[in-house]
Amino acid sequence: MVSDAVVTKVLIGLCVAAYVVQVLAPALDARLAFVPVVAAGEPWRFLTTAFLHANYMHLGFNMWALWVLGGSLEPVLGRWRFTAVYLLSALGGSTAIYWLSWPGTDAWGTMTVGASGAVFGLFSTMFVVQRRFGRDTSGIVALLAINAVISFLGANISWQGHLGGLIVGGIVAAVYAWAPRGKRQTVGIVGTVAVAVVLVGLNIARALIV
After folding, report:
1. What is the pLDDT of residues 51-105, one digit of tens each?
2. SS3 of 114, please?
3. HSE of 83, CA atoms in CB hemisphere, 13 A
4. How far apart are CA 181 and CA 189, in angstroms?
5. 3-state secondary structure of 156
6. Could you tell me the CATH number of the domain that includes residue 71?
7. Which domain holds residue 205?
8. Active-site amino acid positions
9. Which of 17, 29, 70, 133 is the most buried (most CB within 10 A)?
10. Largest alpha-carbon pair distance within the chain?
């Protein structure tokens, strides 16, 4: 199945290439990582942060998860749906960080990097797909539970980003999975655009509140 996962391979390649550039030019983080205090004026950070990583272990774990999950999901969802789930989950992760950080706190000026929000979106997508096809979901639930514990108890881990990606990925996947057979394409496109608009709207609202 991985042989058909072209988008998965491209995403991994982009993340690896970005990490090489990070090592050679550390200043890249300051321009592309997500930092709530500057997010309103530099909105590209909501997505570019998902291609950066803190260290090789961070990169390695996320790329391994992307390889495994993407190799299974991309052939099932199709390339454009898989890409949409991934990018919207990444955006959902940044959105959650933005809303769950507050001016005057350390979190407001903390730099966040990583594809973890997008990966958690793929975890929830896998759960939705397995449920849709009537398969046993105990394995993915156990894996999610373990990662949730690590997210909340581990140091320097953005549980907000993980939570946002998880929720958004599940919502988008549900739209695709339960769309009426005769209107699957239309519902998929409308649902994707609707989720994107909601996320952008939430971020605009957050910027106005600050």
Report:
1. 999 999 999 999 999 999 999 999 999 999 999 999 999 999 999 999 999 999 9
2. coil
3. 9
4. 14
5. coil
6. 1.20.1540.10
7. 2-209
8. 116, 162
9. 70
10. 51
Q: Alpha-carbon distance 37 to 83, whole Å?
A: 28
Residues making up the chain, counted from first to last: 210
In the numeric block, the tokens 């890249």 are attached to 28
Q: Which structure tokens are listed for 191? A: 């649902």
pTM: 0.93
The number of domains in the chain is 1
The DSSP H or E segment spanning 195 is helix 184-209
Between CA 38 and CA 41 the distance in angstroms is 6
Angle, vertex CA 97, rays to CA 10 and CA 33, nearest 5: 50
Q: Could you give the C-alpha distances from 51 to 10, 48, 72, 149, 194, in angstroms and in order?
A: 11, 6, 21, 24, 24
Is residue 160 within 8 A of residue 101, CB to CB? The reply is yes
> Tokens in use for 57?
């272990």
